[in-house]
Amino acid sequence: MNDTENRLRDYLHTQAADAVPADAHGPGPEFGEPTRARHWPVLLSAAAVVLVLGLAATFLTHLGSGNADPAGRPTNVYAPPGALTADLPKVPYTITKNNVSTLYDDGQAVRLPAGVETYFSRRVDGGWLAQSDGPGDFKAGVLLQNGTFRQVGPERSDMPTLSPDRTQVAVVHSTAGTDLGQVLVLDLRTGREVSRTPVGSVPLLRGWNKDGIWFSNGEHDSPPTIGTLYVWRPGSGEPQRVSVPGYAGSLDVPAEPGNVVVTTGTIGHECLVAGSLSDGKFVQQRKFCSTSTAAVYPVLAPDGRTMLDTGANQAVDLGTGRTTKFQLPDAITAWPEPVFEDAAHVLLLTERQPKGGHGDILQQLFRCDVTSGACKLVMKDGSNLKLSKP
Question: Which long-range contacts (CB under 8 A, 24 or more apart) does 330-333 make?
Fold first, then answer.
């Protein structure tokens, strides 16, 4: 892990620099590009970190059988001894080695073209949602199974967010030379624009569920704010503001269940609050205050019934409030965030600090059961791993 990665990790677990409100999350402004009207969310997804670091991949080829077992499934090259291909993550994941990134998913292995990133990735017809940040302007699109990138929508578009039915994609389209932008909704197959919000402060996309597209803005105002939440149903008119008392700037929006989870409070005194919209108002379902002194990032299971308190290595049942401790040897890496394979199983990266504070942080990937806390080692080296939602 290089110095920039370490600094980003430190920033993501502490209060931000002076140019950001004391209760905001995320890396300081020195990691941004003040003259370029492309702004990443202070807390959105692991994509922000990776794109800031510029982990671009090279070459545009589909891997052959040399990287797969006889059944055609890619081998688990970082697995513990004796691991089976059945132990592989059941979500798309990318491994970067020697500056070449390869996406693996259910027996397929596709090398990423130069500049293509998959942290916003979701499975779509014919491939995976992706983003290109190569030479020229940034753009959203689809990484096809043959290893090529198909652009969807205009250039200067990023943060692609898939609709619940996977037929449309929302992107943030930025106005060149300004801090202005808007949300565009595009047909994923044709790239045709379906709807758009009015131009305003560059929005940060947070997710898309039955209530509509969740986004925030204000993080890049002068002076910056913690951000204001909105929900917008494409074609329904103006976005509607969502008020959550104590909102701390982070939010997880699974596509299916209809509820979301946000953080409230300030770092070291944060709570996870799950809830849903009723007549446009946020109705609290469960509030759980973490004992963690680090920043808390919300993660909600795809069925909306379990949220994670990564700072305390545990899952929280939304119906009962019961906590389940994960049986892990080390602390969970809160960022990049964990990814659920299904309602009961979550993939978690752990981290172990080097002895004496010198050397690389040991990162390993585990699959944990949120009902029992049982965990199994999936990859013994997770330092070059990026997980995507299915």
Answer: 330/362, 330/364, 333/363
